[in-house]
Amino acid sequence: MDDDELYDTIHNAVRDALSQHKNPVTEAAFLVLVVWLVIAGFDYLSYARWVNKFRYSAWYNVNASQVQQSEDKPPSDCDFLKAPIGRKGCHYDKRVTYERVITSRDTSTNRPIVSYDEGKTWTWNDGDYPVSPSKTVYVGWQKIEE
Fold first, then answer.
1. Is this structure's pTM higher than 0.70?
2. d(CA 68, CA 138)
3. Calpha distance 67→96 (Å, rounded)
4. What is the pLDDT along the chain (146 residues), one digit of tens a residue?
């Protein structure tokens, strides 16, 4: 018997054995497990620091070092299964903030000015502290009371 015949024999035997023992409860449990793993995978990807660094550095066109995340996961004080078990009346939403610092000079006085909101508002920068143009993305969690 060569390798192909051996493979076909084993494959057919396993297929026949599985077809005789189909159980709708087992199939439903397996489907629920697969769905739960997919949901848990998406949940992990929304919290993972490395995913957020990659995602937001591409989205906002900044270096990964310019993406700062406060914590790997939101605080657990709103979790249903944390003591005391039950609804806590709150949840956490991910908040992403993009800050772009722009420096320039006032056209009439030639004094240095700085903007922290994409140039909507400007403040004087008379050298009290050095400010350089930069871009930063902040990822954090905001508690929402329900």
1. no
2. 5
3. 10
4. 666 777 778 778 777 766 766 677 777 787 888 887 777 666 667 778 888 888 888 888 888 889 998 877 778 888 887 788 888 898 888 889 888 888 888 888 888 888 888 788 888 887 766 677 788 899 988 899 98
Buried b (16+ CB within 10 A) or exposed e, 70-95: eeeebeeebeeeeeeeeeeeebbeee
Torsion of CA 123, 124, 125, 128, to 10 degrees: -110
Q: What residue type is 108 in one-letter code?
A: S
The residue behind tokens 């350089």 is 132
Burial class (CB in 10 A: 0-12, 13-18, 19+), 67: buried
